[in-house]
Design brief:
Shape: globular
Number of strands: 13
Bound molecules: ribulose-5-phosphate
Order of helices and strands: HEHEHEEEHEEHEEHEEEE
CATH architecture of the largest domain: 3-Layer(aba) Sandwich
Largest sheet: 6 strands, mixed
CATH topology of the largest domain: Rossmann fold
Distance between the termini: 15 Å
Strand content: 15-25%
């Protein structure tokens, strides 16, 4: 694909990466319209979108309510003055803004570095339109990062075994500044599963979903038609969709 850039080969310095994230986040925030219910994803790129949404709200340009995908998103939204609501109150969402760890040309994603993938997928599913904000290092020809799987602690050994039978090398994610496993906002564990290159994301996502106790995985392969990927660059953005 001519417009495609190989993320693995894309080298950026830290300052350039921050500018790219800011440009992507700000572009996404500019696509939000007055009165919308907005899914608020988790992670450093979405922070920039929230920062800009907060500015637009403060400037009187926008009145919206956000559905946060994590405690982190909720805390940051409050800091930026974005009113919050819930999926209970709004089971259909106008637009969601979220980050990703990898994006392929079919707009399949790997998400979950921030361990928020379960709520992020619920919000993505509920949204009419999904803006994925990334820097160019996230753009790849083939998904190949470890796939995070949120696992019911009761079943974690059984799920570990089933994921290994699918060909993964699962590793239980440990906390930082916390001994022992990461416990998600939903009270579960995360298994990071290295499958190598994921040739068929839809098939793998379906196989993982069939394991009892595997509550959700970070492969997002069903939403390409409603996803718009905004790749921030240092001075611009590229906007990619399948339509
Ligand atoms: C959290 C996620 C994040 O959206 C993803 O990890 C991207 O984060 P960042 O924008 O900080 O690179 O999936 O679960």
């Amino acid at each position: 694909m001519a417009i495609w850039m190989e993320g693995e080969d894309y080298v950026m310095n830290a300052a350039g990466q921050v500018e790219s994230k800011r440009n992507a986040g700000y572009r996404a925030a500019g696509m939000v319209e007055d009165g919308m219910i907005v899914g608020l994803g988790t992670g450093s790129t979405v922070f920039f979108a929230m920062e800009r949404l907060g500015e637009r709200i403060a400037g009187g340009d926008l009145s919206i309510a956000g559905v946060p995908t994590s405690y982190q998103a909720a805390l940051r939204a409050r800091q930026y003055g974005i009113p919050l609501t819930s999926l209970d109150e709004h089971p259909e969402i106008d637009i969601a803004i979220d980050g990703a760890d990898q994006v392929d040309p079919g707009l399949n994603l790997i998400k979950g570095r921030g361990a928020a993938l379960l709520r992020e997928k619920c919000v993505c599913d509920a949204a009419k339109r999904v803006l994925i904000v990334v820097d160019p290092t996230k753009v790849v020809d083939t998904l190949n990062a470890p796939v995070p799987v949120e696992v019911l602690p009761f079943a974690s050994a059984a799920v570990f075994r089933r994921l290994a039978l699918l060909g993964a090398v699962p590793v239980i994610r440990d906390g930082v500044k916390k001994d022992g496993p990461v416990v998600t906002d939903n009270g579960n564990f995360i298994l990071d599963c290295d499958f190598g290159a994921v040739a068929d994301p839809q098939h793998l996502e379906a196989r993982i979903a069939s394991i009892p106790g595997a509550l959700e995985c970070g492969l997002f392969s069903a939403y390409g038609e409603k996803i718009v990927v905004i790749v921030g660059e240092e001075n611009n953005c590229r906007v990619i969709s399948l339509r």
